[in-house]
Amino acid sequence: MHRQLEALRAQVNEERLTLRAANGAVKEIVLASVVRAYRPNTLSVWGKLRVYASKLWEFISGDPRESNTEGGVFPAIFGTVLMVLIMSVAVVPFGVLAALYLREYAKAGFWVRLVRIAVNNLAGVPSIVFGVFGLGFFVYFVGGSIDALLYPERLPAPTFGTGGILWASLTLALLTVPVVIVATEEGLAAVPREMREGSYALGATKFETIKNVVVPAALPGVLTGLILAMARGAGEVAPLMITGVVKLAPTLPLDAHWPFLHLERKFMHLGFHIYDVGFQSPNIEAAKPMVYATTLLLVGIVVTLNLAAILLRARVRRRLAGGVF
Fold this sequence. Notes:
The chain is mainly alpha-helical. The protein is built from eleven helices and four strands, in the order H-E-E-H-E-E-H-H-H-H-H-H-H-H-H. Strands 1-2 form a two-stranded antiparallel sheet. A two-stranded antiparallel sheet has the order 3-4.
C-alpha cells in the first residue's frame, strides 16, 4: 500500500504546468499544486465578484494549507469562539458569587480589604504568568490526577494531562475573573437602597431580597463585566501557547462522536494563527495577506461577541426600567 501511494505521488508530481509571463519569463509548477485556475483579464465584473466571493468563503470555511499561509481559517475561528464561550461559562458564576459574598455577606475588616487588594493586583499580573500557573495547576496537577483516576489504561500517554481547550479556557477564566468581580460589585453598589428596604418591609429575608431584587437589578453590571472579559479573553495569546493552542489541529473539539464535545483536545486560535503566520512563516511577504485578513476577522469576531452582549444588556435594562416594584 505504501509503495502504491508513493508511486501515485511520483506520477502526480511528473505532471507539470508551463507558464509564460508577459515579459517572456517561463516558469514550471507541479500541476497537482494548482488549486484554482482562471484568467482575470477575461473576467467580467460579475465574474470577478464570483471569484472574490468564492475565495472569501474558502477563507472562512476552509482548512489551512501550506503551513497556514494559504487556505482557510475555519478551525481557528471555531476554536476561538468555543474557547470564549467556555471561558464565559466558567468565569461568570465564579465572579458573581465572589462579588456577592464580598458586597453582601462579608464583614468589613482586614481580611476583606486584603482580598480586595489581591483582586485588584490580580488584574495587573502579566498574562504569561497565568499561563505558567495554568500549565502547572490545571494541566499537570488536575489533568494528571484525572488521568490517574479515570484513564490509567492509557498512561503514560496523557488524556487530560496535556494542553487542551478546557485548560486554556479555565486559565483565561482566572485571568478575567477580577474584571467580572469589580464590574459586578459596581452593579450591586448601584442598586438603590430603597429597593432593598422595600423588600425587607414586605417580609422578605436577606437571601430572598438578594435573589429576587438585588441580583436582577445588578444584571447590567454583570453583563458589563462579561463584555470586558470576553474582549480580553478573545485577544489573549500568551497563556494559550502553553495550555492548549497549537499551530495546526487536525480535528475539531466538537464532532459527532460521544461525548461530542472533546474538551481534552488541542485547538487553533486566531491570535496564535496571526503570530505564527506573521512571524514564524518562512515567506513573510507571501503570508502578509493572510495576516491582515485574519487580524480583521479576529477584530470582527470580538466586536460581534461584544455587540451580542451589549444588546442583551440593553434588553435587560429596558425590562428593568419598565418593571414595577
